[in-house]
């Protein structure tokens, strides 16, 4: 599928979901704006591994409505957010403005990011949950990251585990069986979905129901990062994730993370990869 096809389909998908997501209890935007919640659940989970990021020029790739971007700003980072969806960035700018945060937002697809950012480089590049699956080519993504991170700079990725993405959700919901159905490795042809739903609570009836995504194996990701001049500084697989991917067989914890109800040693749900660009 040509780049313009998947980009147009996924942009329409995310444009329509921006406002419902910003109004959902899961994102809890108003409490985040007010400061009653200092950090999003995602960044609160990431904070121990992130360490001190005060003053770092930081780029958040695929930032969506910017709740995690705002949270990183509250940890002291000097933030720029980039996203494909103009409607998502409209919400992100509103949220940042209401919270009194100075965040620069740029609209672009990931592969065009170096041009959209006019050659700027960053000390830290952050990409969060549910981002890499929207990209067809992980090696091309890594090449972009290498252009955006200055020598000595850091890459921080927390993402859904490719084993989790490969599980059959219907079997899991029916009887708790964890069965592989979808690709683990990257394939040229993406997974095409057609669902009138999203991952948050909303009564909104969606018209743009189609989306296209890809999986990327752990080895493919790590090899891509190493091959463009990074050295791996950390890799952790987690037994939790911040959204419900397998209905019927997961419980929500007080930390906002979902875990398997039984035998959580069966499946990694997310991972955190950290790397530093060699100088």
Give the structure's gist in a few sentences.
The protein has 279 residues and is α/β, with parallel strands linked by helices.
Keywords:
single chain, 279 residues, alpha/beta, Rossmann fold, two-stranded antiparallel ribbon, 11 strands
Commentary on this structure:
There is one protein chain. The protein is α/β, with parallel strands linked by helices and 279 residues long. It is globular and about 50 Å long. The protein has one domain: Rossmann fold (3-Layer(aba) Sandwich). The strands form 3 sheets. A 7-stranded mixed beta sheet has the order 3-2-1-4-5-11-8, with helices on both faces. A two-stranded antiparallel ribbon has the order 6-7. α7 (138-148) links the parallel β4 and β5 (149-160). The chain starts with a helix and ends with a strand. The protein has helices at residues 3-22, 29-34, 41-50, 67-74, 86-99, 113-116, 138-148, 162-165, 169-175, 218-227, and strands spanning 57-61, 78-83, 104-107, 122-127, 149-160, 191-194, 210-213, 230-238, 250-252, 258-260, 270-277.
Oligomer: single chain
CA gyration radius, whole angstroms: 18 Å
Order of strands, widest sheet: 3-2-1-4-5-11-8
Which topology does CATH recognise?
Rossmann fold
CATH architecture: 3-Layer(aba) Sandwich
Helices, by number, come to 10
Main structural class: alpha/beta
The N- and C-terminal alpha carbons lie at a distance of 36 Å
Which of globular, elongated, flat, extended, rod-shaped describes the shape?
Answer: globular
Q: Unreliable stretches, pLDDT < 50, 5 or more residues? A: none
The profile of the biggest β sheet is: 7 strands, mixed
